[in-house]
Amino acid sequence: MAHLDGSNDELYAMPRRRQILAKRTQAQRQTERKALGKLRFQIVAPSTEARYFTHVSRFLRFLKEHQKGYPSTFVLLDKAVSEFIESLWESGDPKSWASDTLSGLGHFIPACKPHLVGSWRLHAAWGRAELPARAPPFTPLILYALAQVAVLRNWTDVSVLLILGFHTFARTGELFNARVGDFVLGATSGTWTLPLSKGGQRQGVTESILLNDPFVVLLLRNYCKNKKPGDRLANASPGVMRNRLYTLLEQLKLDSPYRWYSVRRGGATHAYRNSNDISSICVRGRWNSIKTARIYIADAVAQLSELQLTPSRTRRLTSLAVACRPSFLKAL
């Protein structure tokens, strides 16, 4: 494991992960694969590998700070990782640090994966003992009100991504990385291709989402009119986009811990409440199982029941939502 404690220049120098279409001849395949890079760089996305490296390095520093040597057997490794997870729990650190440490060790040292039994049991116990603080879902009222305030601030990209994400149940990373060339837009419908989606990476396929709301399609057509295929829909970095959403929430005095992920949760929850069709929601949201989607949506519905707005606040939000989408009240 000592190599993980050294330089990570190679890790950050690896090419951007992408996909290629298998060619007919050996020479063509060789050329395409050479451009793609080493096969070991195709296992996980570069950003994921960088995150794994960060957390495994934290585990190695833990060993050094507590004057523990590098484990010489998998049994000792499991014991050391278990102690590290206990320290994360006691220090108030996020569970994701434990998750990325375990996944990172399994990624960098594949042979250790079946031997970290005790560590994974602690990870499971953590999940049972401490429920995740999920981002509450946006309602259509709040979503379109935020989109209108974004337009008034000249943050048109924020407005477009809020509405697009609510319609498609897109993940935050998919929204921030969406490019003009990913969309094929007709008069009233279109498609959005997700070349590097989370599910697509797992299954080795390119995913796409049907855009069947004429308002969303027209919005995208107008927004992309003077842009190049390689341009991102987002005009700023993810960090700036997050800060802008927080600013909009503050302006509307919405105190709940909303985040960009609230867009995906809100869109899926609203669609389920309208259709009661969990299967179609699961397909559109690209969840691997109906069971997972049902838990996800049930929790979101429970959070919606806790949301209470005063009549005056509701009137203000409704006015903004209608300004953003004139047919808003009919579209509910």
How would you explain this protein's 3D organization?
This protein is mainly α. The protein folds into 2 domains: 2-129, no CATH class; 140-331, Intergrase catalytic core (hpI Integrase, Chain A, Orthogonal Bundle). Helix content is 61%, strand content 4%. It has a 3-stranded antiparallel sheet with strand order 1-2-3, covered by helices on one side. A hairpin with a 4-residue loop joins strand 1 and strand 2 (190-194). Helix 4 runs parallel beside helix 6. The radius of gyration is 23 Å and the shape is globular. Mean pLDDT is 88; it is low at 5-17.
Summarize the structure.
This protein has 332 residues and is mainly alpha-helical.
Topology:
Elements: H1 9-13, H2 26-36, H3 46-65, H4 74-91, H5 95-108, H6 117-129, H7 140-152, H8 156-168, H9 172-177, E1 183-185, E2 190-194, H10 198-203, E3 207-211, H11 214-224, H12 238-251, H13 261-275, H14 278-285, H15 290-305, H16 311-324, H17 328-331
Antiparallel strand pairs: 1-2, 2-3
Give keywords.
332 residues; mainly alpha; hpI Integrase, Chain A; 17 helices; globular
| Rg result | 23 Å
Determine the structural class based on helices, strands and strand pairing. mainly alpha
Question: CATH H level of the largest domain: which superfamily?
Answer: Intergrase catalytic core
Report how far apart the termini are: 56 Å
The CATH architecture assignment of the largest domain turns out to be: Orthogonal Bundle
Number of helices: 17
Assembly state of the chains shown: single chain
H/E series: HHHHHHHHHEEHEHHHHHHH
Average pLDDT rating: 88
Tell me the count of domains: 2
> Outline, from the CA principal axes?
globular
- Which ranges are low-confidence, i.e. pLDDT below 50, for 5 or more consecutive residues? 5-17
Biggest sheet: strand arrangement = 1-2-3
CATH topology group of the largest domain: hpI Integrase, Chain A
Strand count, sense and closure of the main sheet?
A: 3 strands, antiparallel
Strand content: under 5%
Number of strands: 3
